Amino acid sequence: MSVTTAFTANEGRTYSSAPAPGFRLGSSGLVALSWLVPVLLLITWEVLARYGWIEPHLLPAPSKVALTAYKLTVSGTLLHDLAVSLLRAAIGFAIGGGIGFALGTLVGFSRIAEAVIDRSVQMVRAIPFLAVLPLVIVWLGVGEGQKIFLVALGVAFPIYVNTTLGIRQVDPKLIELGRVQGLSTWELITRIILPGALPSILTGVRFSLATAWLALVVAETIGAQAGLGFLALDAREFLRTDVIVLTVIIYALIGVVADSLARLLERRLLQWHPNYGAVR
Amino acid sequence: MTVQPRASAFQNNAVVVSHLRRAYGTRTVIDHLNLVIGQGEFVVLLGESGCGKTTLLRALAGLDPVQGGTIEVPGRPAVVFQEHRLLPWETLWRNVTLGLHVPDARARAADALGEVGLGDRLDDWPRNLSGGQAQRVALARALVQAPKLLLLDEPFAALDALTRLRMHGLVKDLVARHQPGVLLVTHDVDEALRLGNRILVMRHGVIAAEHRLRPDHDSAGVRAELLRELGVTSSH
């Protein structure tokens, strides 16, 4: 049996988006327009390089760079170096992210942990992490350890700060509700506190992806035997500006891909959030 | 303080409060308060802001420590707050079954949401709800626990007038069916008259007046009396 109520299904609100003022351009039109300037720049660059207005040894034509990309891909060098770099980034990210998240959670939950840990972490955080590079080289040499350490160092802090912040910002009224509903401490953490902290934690992940990449670029320019940085260094020895430009472009592309992955993760995990998910 | 889940001592009582004392530092907010709410009884607690009525409700919910006396509640009381307090990251049925450890949780959530007229919204998100709908889900979340004592802390205060009237009807129906003892804290005298079997007026931490309402009670008369007890001088 069911209680008869006077509520109707139409009680929920619906929103309609008002058209923007001014003359209208469809969203696909706007996307096309946004690509206009980059494409024009590329064409100008190509033309200038082709007709000798730019010295090819300083800046080769985009078509030359594309051809180099193709050759290096076919020979396997590029993919190998790319894989080595990505692996370094992934390992460093896992280690640094894990440590940052663990410490952040600890400090977020416990005032005692905060008193013990936070000041030291904040002091170390004040150091631009690239400034310790010479020290890291003395400690760990110029092998894999140095590169992974530097990435981990860069990643740990954004994740630490945002995890702590996220946990502290969870609405105390929801925690109180959890107590009223009789949740265990474990349920309180997994169903209320961590989901509540997740938007902030994911912001930390996005920041740290950018830092990880920066750390890798710097670390790889010192004593690498493989990797994108090595590819660029090696090319410099032979004045192969086409290869150098190629590595720069690949660094940029990977940055863009990493950022889109982080956004995708946000949309997936935060589909409940008014600022992320699609409405209905 | 003791909150004892002793069902045997009760038979028909949803809560027995004896000599309850609650103080913030030296300021006593609740002073040797006694209260018994029977199973299926709808008790409304009226009073000015700061008279201790929300403090009493929070003590009964086990949210705040008390400094003296006993509260005996069979099982865990359910609470509906002024804000819906739905977890925005959980779907409606997961919200309703928060803290409910049974194998057929989803089916129970479906029943409870059906009872509040949202049976087709199990997998929807809280952000897609209006204020009234969200408060109905909060009500479903409280009732799915099958509480012996239901505590309502001004749950209609943030709703618009029409939605509030509809909510009154819904709550009355649901309480009649599930028969929990209810303590409703409110500022609204007319709400008290519509919903309560018994109306208590609280002042300075004690229950200053009590009205038992029979079905044939003189609404206007009780209303005038309540307003006088609340310190509002009625013009008619």
From TrEMBL, chain A:
Residues 78-262 form the ABC transmembrane type-1 domain. It is found in: Cell membrane. Keywords: Cell membrane, Membrane, Transmembrane, Transmembrane helix, Transport. This is Sulfonate transport system permease protein. The chain crosses the membrane at residues 30-53, 86-109, 121-142, 148-167, 213-231, 243-265. The lineage of its organism: Bacteria, Pseudomonadati, Pseudomonadota, Alphaproteobacteria, Hyphomicrobiales. It comes from Ancylobacter vacuolatus. InterPro entries: MetI-like, MetI-like_sf. The keyword Cell membrane applies. CDD domains: TM_PBP2.
Automatic annotation (TrEMBL), chain B:
It is an enzyme of class 3 (hydrolase). Keywords: ATP-binding, Hydrolase, Nucleotide-binding, Transport. Residues 15-229 form the ABC transporter domain. One of its GO terms (molecular function) is hydrolase activity. Its EC number is 3.6.3.-. InterPro entries: AAA+_ATPase, ABC_transporter-like_ATP-bd, ABC_transporter-like_CS, ABC_transporter_ATP-bind, P-loop_NTPase. It comes from the Bacteria. Pfam families: ABC_tran. The keyword Transport applies. Belongs to the ABC transporter superfamily. This is Sulfonate transport system ATP-binding protein.
